[in-house]
Amino acid sequence: MWLKSVLILLLSCWIPLLMAEGEEEVEDYVGYVELKPFVANFGGTTELHFVKCEITIQAGSLATEQALGDHIDAIRNDILFLLMAQSEESMSSISAQKILAKKAILLVKQRLVEEVGEEAGDVDDLFFVSFVAQ
């Protein structure tokens, strides 16, 4: 009886170690693609308003990072038209800029799905590295 309890105790100690050896640790991939600085006019009034910004896109996989690099010109074009369509109010506050970043992420994902397919739409985030509107 005593021998059985010792064996059970030893086996219960070794099982978690054996299971841990068999598991493969999957590292989360993080890649960044920097876009060249944008300069665009915006607003529908007679006054000229300009925005200059630098954007970095965070990719969740190597395939997405490569797809971003392959289709960077189309992505820049889409974001440029998004910036040009904004009003003065949508460029003035930080909360409005966050909404603008979310719209830009959706555009980038949509472009990648159109160009590459569903598997390459793993865009995690979009950052305005610098943002100046006047």
Total count of helical runs of at least 4 residues: 5
What integer value in Å does the Rg equal?
24 Å
Indicate the CATH class: Alpha Beta
What count of domains describes the coordinates? 1
> SSE string, helix = H, strand = E?
HEEEHHHHE
**Low confidence ranges:** none
Secondary-structure-derived class: alpha+beta
From the N-terminal CA to the C-terminal CA, the straight-line distance is 83 Å
Summarize the biggest pleated sheet: 4 strands, antiparallel
Brief overview, please?
With 134 residues, the protein is α+β, with helices and mostly antiparallel strands. It has 5 helices and 4 strands. It has helices at 2-22, 62-70, 72-84, 89-92, 94-115, and strands spanning 31-34, 38-42, 49-59, 123-133.
Can you describe what's shown?
The protein has 134 residues and is of the alpha+beta class. The protein has one domain (31-133): Tetrahydropterin Synthase, Chain A (2-Layer Sandwich). Helix content is 51%, strand content 23%. It has helices spanning 2-22, 62-70, 72-84, 89-92, 94-115, and strands at residues 31-34, 38-42, 49-59, 123-133. Strands 1, 2, 3 and 4 form a four-stranded antiparallel sheet that branches. Helix 3 (72-84) runs antiparallel to helix 5 (94-115). The radius of gyration is 24 Å and the shape is elongated. The model has no long low-confidence stretch (mean pLDDT 81).
